[in-house]
Amino acid sequence: MGPFEVFTDRDKDQARSTLNHLEQLRWAFAYFTGKQEPKSLFPIRIVITDKPASPKFVPVGDAWRGFLAHKEDIGPEWNTQVVRILMDENLGRMPSAIEDGLIQLLSTAEVSGTHVIIGQPPKELTLNWARLHLLATTDEYRGRVRLLIANLEKGVDTDVAFRNALSKTAAEIDREAETHLNGKTVATYDLSGKPLNANRDFTPRVPDEDAVRAARGATSGPQTAMGLFDAGNFEAASKLQPEWSAPYRAMATTETDAGKKGGLVKKAAELAPRDSGLWTEFALLMTQYERWADADKAWAQALRAATDPADREEILARRRDLTDRRLEAEANARREAKLAEEREIQQLKNEAVARIQEAEKKANSGGALDPNAKVHEWWDGPQPDAKLAGTLTRVDCRAGKFTLSIRSEGKAVSLAVADPKALVVTGGGQTTLSCGAQKPARPVEVEYFEKSKQAAVIRFQ
């Protein structure tokens, strides 16, 4: 059921009892954390044997595997490891005092049918245990401890989380926990467990020989994710178990391409968000590549995942250093951009001066100008495509626009002047235009645009 498997070739009642214990422990974990159907990346497999029980679960054959002696119950050490596995796979990082307390609280859980007895004291009573024992077994707090854990595992500040869930500060709860720790009696709480019927819900089935060998084996099979990983075939292991962080981290150690290496480390960190070391490694890579935003996010994740105070101080110092380096890099980038702009402006100035000097050189080397050379009027707009010679008889001025009336070859021709400032007026004598009839009428040559009948150049003769 769930992530649990029990192998036995003897007492089916013990197998059912063992499976019920594990599933009720998972139910209790879900009750206090609010996680529905908490999972384990690899199955948790128990083999009932006539040999002594193994002290803990070990990763073998793509599963956590432990041997349980015939007629022996699951003890606190296995409870502890199961809760830790579920915590690592399902919860965000919380303050170590809360995590340790929850593990200690559930490590002594006793299961009887569909009842889970919470609160039996561990071998060593600690403040962390007393804090969670207080919250889990007293009527005042028991219904709100799930909200506290939900806030903490999402990264909410400790005092804020305590006030939101319990209406008290963490320090106030600690003082109550100290009193609770020094009390003369230790209360327990009978938690209603998962509604299971071990005889009905746990149906035995006969596994194939490969499954039996895998369950009993000392090493992982060559075609399992763990076996491929142990053989150094990390890419194949990642494809077989894509939610496993370890293969991606191993592949990153030999990757030489910077972009691929960063992607592998990021993937490994995202699959193991509680691993502060992975986030630190990714943050250092992003700092090295000067990807400041990604580095800052990675440092924030590393800080959240860190539990040791010394590690947290080091991460905070590195994050402050990152901020200083980012600000320095941004300032250097601004200075370089300004210098580049100044260099470009200076280059344009130098080119302009060079053109002027070249023109002066040509003028000075050519001697006097030829008096018979044709002089072209300056014009930087579109070139007119028609020409008209005649007599300017009248200039009509309306709303800032001119209309030129020209007598040419016995016909009256009207040309417009849309922008008087753009009209080029040249020639001998008076070169200004006056509104009204031209007295006397003056001979002119006009260049204009045929399509629009717009005059561009008027040259008095």
Q: What is the first-to-last residue Cα distance?
A: 110 Å
Global geometry: elongated
- Strand elements, count: 13
**Secondary-structure-derived class:** alpha+beta
Unreliable parts: none
User: How large is the count of helical segments?
Assistant: 16
| Mean pLDDT value | 87
| Spatial order of the strands forming the largest sheet | 10-9-8-12-13-11
Helix content: 40-55%
Task: Provide the β-strand percentage band.
Answer: 15-25%
Radius of gyration: 44 Å
Helix-strand topology string? EHEEEHHEEHHHHEHHHHHHHHHEEEEEE
Could you give a short account of the major beta sheet?
6 strands, mixed
Notes on the structure:
The structure is a single chain. The chain is α+β, with helices and mostly antiparallel strands. It has 16 helices and 13 strands. The longest helix has 57 residues, at 309-365.
